[in-house]
Amino acid sequence: MLTLQERQALIDMIKKTSSAAIEKYKNINNEDEEILFLGDSMVEYFNTNFYYPELKISNRGVAGATTKLIMDNLDTITG
Fold this sequence. Notes:
- This protein starts with a helix and ends with a helix.
- The protein is 52% helix and 13% strand.
- The protein has helices at residues 4-25, 41-44, 48-51, 67-72, 74-78, and strands at 35-39, 57-61.
- The chain is α+β, with helices and mostly antiparallel strands.
């Protein structure tokens, strides 16, 4: 079981990581992509170009993301 300090440190790390991913999506143009992948770290680290090179995919995974975080930042994440 985590101590309160360990739990808070983990929460802070996840927020920082998620914020960095969301920030990098702010200035990315998605106009050419036809498919959107949206989700947590499983999506963020999934190499869409390797598995689907013929498709125009916008990968918008956010490590540490919760449904609430995605919904609260949907416009920023999706551009």
